[in-house]
## 1
Amino acid sequence: LSPLSDLLSYTRFLCTMRSKSRTYDYHSIVIFRLSSTTGNEPDGGSDSTRNSGSPSTDAMQLYAMESTCPHLGADMGHADIEDTDVGLVAVCPWHRYDFDLKTGHSETGLRACTFEIQIRSGGDGLDDQYIWVEAPGDGDWEVVEVRPVSEDFADPPDLSRLSLNDAGSTQPQEELDQPPPSTLLEWAVLILNTPQPQLKVDRTRQAVTAFRTGKLKSVGRNKPLARPPPDMPPRDQLNVVQPGKVAKRGKAGSVKSRIAILHALANIEQWAIDLAWDMIARFGKEKVDGEPLPHQFFLDWTKVAEDESKHFSLLRKRLEELGSYYGSHTVHAGLWESA
């Protein structure tokens, strides 16, 4: 998988593999590195999964588990690790289903796939020791990427603030003061009509969390929408131009060029959020062979919207670290217009 020394800076890693014979087939697992004395993750720095120390192999336990919860597909990279009477368990961040880190068994009757993981030594130093993990299925896999899991978005938003206001938005005050929508389709239309970027992200996280946890119970298939989804989602405090009018960004050889590229990527993520909600708003009431769309359709597209929100937030944060901000450059709607 990788040298052991590469897995000492963080305590959770996402490993992506690709089938050698079926190159379209990918599989992801999460690797947990825990302390052998407490079963807890080592303390770290500013990121709750980070650890700057260099523990010995005798002071750690390694576990490998499929990256998504078998219940409804939650990201197990953000699972809580708890020490119970039956051993260490990973607790799903969405519905608190617990899975034994060794066997994958859960009190709910579900089972997550777990994989044997070993440290094999080729010498005395940490650089001479390697992580080996059992391959899924037929074993015909190659490692594509091993990357640390960030905890920046692990905590769910505060659902007591479902009716969000935002001082920087030009939306009418009476619209901002409305109670939260009661159906997923109403949320989709509201978010599509939200022009302020951060408010769009916050509302996305709140709607997705409420839907997954059952606080938002209705899709809204049979309830008329007060307004249709917009032909073009509005943008607040942004200079929107035609794609050909956007200034050249360069090749990332300077800070100025990197800022321009990051800004362009952040713009893409904002439109990607809208495209995910537009799928829900426009097709949520459709039927296939006389049957309404399955619940999984809505789970999948809300997950896409949430993922794009995470991507935008990371890019915006990096822009600010470089001394810039989202809105400092012109943007275009090419992604939306091409969809």
## 2
Amino acid sequence: MKHSTALTVALGAALVLPALTATTAAAASAPDGLSFEVATVNGSGCPAGTVSVALSNDDDGDDFLLTVRTSAMRAEGTGGSPQTAFRKNCQISLKTHVPEEKTFAVRQVDYYGAAQLEPGASGTLKETRYFQGMATAPAETKTFSGPYSGAWAHSSQRFSDLLFRPCGEDRNFNIIQEVQAERGTSDPSKAISTGIEGTGRTVYHLDLKNCFWR
């Protein structure tokens, strides 16, 4: 168990981000006109009022960071819990506003959460995202195996084939997340959990570029 905790601390230190400069709320905006607003949420992991967004800059001040928090996104249970307790999902649709001469894509995503997994148990995070009316980005899946106790962090990057929002078009940015705790061969009398609720969050690194009109 001590080994798992040490690994968690190392991961968290490697992926630590600058402090947010925007107030977390149902909407977030930046001085240059870029903004995001929670349009709709749906799913067992995000009851009304549990999803918020914030915008900040990275260390260099060149890129924007979109932070999404889901305060109820936690799957947990024991041997007597219903199967629905071990799986939580959330579909988030964000209304986006981008200046006409700009567009953006997601080039990196950092996930922060916590898990309590007994030996033989596992926890899984899944995510897909897409702009309204467009193809989805490749699905992201990360699995943690027990024994594990404490915070976890995971980062995913794309260096090519970025999916940019079409220039001059109003399209929502849609996110579908799922967390699942699997009992496996673990002791059914002991609780297991995983999630990105509480202090957990998902941070999207936005790659902005200019639109060139013909």
## 3
Amino acid sequence: MSAKYDLQIKELQIKEIETSNKVVNQQKRYLTIILIIVIFIFFITLISFNLKRRNRIQKEKLIEQQNQQIKLTLETKEKELIYKNRELSKAISSTVSMNETLQSIKTLIKSDEKKEAIRAINSTLNKNLNWEKFQISFNEIHPHFLNHLNEKFPTLTQNEKRLCAFLRMDLKTSEIANLTNISETSVSKSRNRLRKKLGLESGSDIGSFLKDLN
């Protein structure tokens, strides 16, 4: 009886050990699976991080290149505008100088037989500044000004638009008078009429108003 009892005890112990081993093995499998999942997630995260980092670096480089290109383009356009503005100013200055010379010659011609010469000089004065060429150069420097002016004030005459362009360039009354071959008094009167057409109060600065049209 004792031997049989001992055998049963041993069998129970063996079963307990086997059960315990099964539990341990099951836990090991679970731990292995969890470890594999953790490692997988780690590598996926690492790869994703590297991809995002690489994309960010590429985007930053692209943005930097675009900024450099924009900066270069703006610098080039600015230089072109400065050059065109300088050339237009030279053309106006040259025209003013020539007109002043012709006006001086006119004052020296007083005899009746020289009236034909005076008419020729007046014709030259009127043609010295070619409005179409001036308008092309002006539009290159102020590309939207005349369009905005036409949209807001469609009733302006050609002479009034030309006066607006001169005032936009901050030309003096004497310079405008010289370019248009009229007196400074006439220029002042034209400016006053223009001020009313633009809906400005008497004495207001037309030049500042016109600069805001750009």
## 4
Amino acid sequence: MTSNTRQFRAQAIPTIIMVILTPLFIGLGLWQLDRAEQKRNQGSSLEMRRKQPPVSLDGPHPDAEQLRFRQVVAHGRYLNDKSVLIENRKHQGKTGFHLVTPLRLQESGRTLLVNRGWIARDQIDQALAAADVGERLTVHGEVRIPQPPAIELKQKDAASEDTAPRWPFLTLEHFREWSGLDIAPFVVLQSPQDAHGFVRQWPHPRVSDIMHIGYAIQWFAFAIITLLIWIRLSLHKRGTKEAAV
């Protein structure tokens, strides 16, 4: 009588591949878990920053990175002739602009940019007229650091007599070159509670670890699959004969 059994005998090439790939996949999975932990810590840090008392920008203050997502307050006057409109900003399905105006600080004389909110495309003339505020103001808001797009298109700097320049995006370096102003390296998203308001429903960046957890599971699954394939390739059939008594 003949029966088939399996004998475990590892082969050189599959074993070498397994020894290389399995630790690699496990290491990548652990790296993704570490990235997920970093994201959770980053999210907690952002929430803590938003809940801290406002920082006054009138005097000495921390650098831009330390101010990122912090609530701030500043006193000064708008330089309305240096306002720009950022195109193709959406609100509730409608297309409009963000109005960005430099604020000259009262005490220090320094200048910072304030995003004053969203304006509907068909209300631009009335909104700009209402935005031409000359008195001293108190501005509250949250600090953001704008990032340049991956592909920069040519900006349209020329303004007509009755409107501000319209740009597809805002970069601090381009604004400095265009305006000749030495602006602070950040933008203040003005608070909805401030006067002279436009639509100010600023999105809050959400830091999620879900993507990294998913990648970690994927890499660990690859490690398990590699081991299973190696085990399967290492099992070989062996025929044996059992003598009948």
